[in-house]
Write a structure and sequence with these properties.
- By secondary structure, the chain is an alpha/beta fold.
- It is globular, with a radius of gyration of 16 Å.
- The protein is built from 5 helices and 8 strands, in the order E-E-E-H-E-H-E-H-E-E-H-E-H.
Amino acid sequence: MTDRITLTSPHDGFQFEALHAEAQGQRRGGVIVIQEIFGLDQYVQADVARWSDLGFETLAPSMFDRGQKGFTAGHDPEGLAAGVKLATGNGPDNAMSDIQACVDALKDKGPVFIVGYCYGGTMVWLAANRVKGLAAGSSYYGGQVAGMAGLPLSCPVIVHLGRTDAHIPADEVKAKVTAAHPEVPVFIYEQSGHGFNNDGRPDSNLEDAQLARKRTLELFEANGAI
């Protein structure tokens, strides 16, 4: 069961919506799911449900609410352009503050983890540098991770990349991350391209997606998930 709740960003008092799902069965911790550039679409909703089913209370903040409440868009050039415009206008400070609000909503009940895709993959890396209270983070195909590779990290992070991703050169990103953070595992999935966590999309390979999810769960279990 997924509902929508309202959270308040600590740095400016802005109220934004987030998808919320209670943990099914024994609660193992909290997971924050950070969207792709396309908003809280069907793939984000499916991911929220997956983490909830695994025993994690899950939040997926609507990251662009300051620009357009409840934004979602198709996975096409028009949707991409609209999402990029909103992400650029929102900036990193608002994004990090909204993620901090999610952490603050979950932290008193156990460890808090973060996972993000595309835009969200970049936000996971930046959150590991700037947000307080995260236990671990899993970054999927974040376009700006290479440029931020040198940032110090406050929690363990893993990185997932698709070999055939036309937007993100996997070997280059891995080299930059490894040079700055040799402790960070960077996994390249040979059968997949960009957005491979989205089941049914052209660049998605189910075995790769399942392996990345397994590795993410193992990361969370190694860092406090009950």
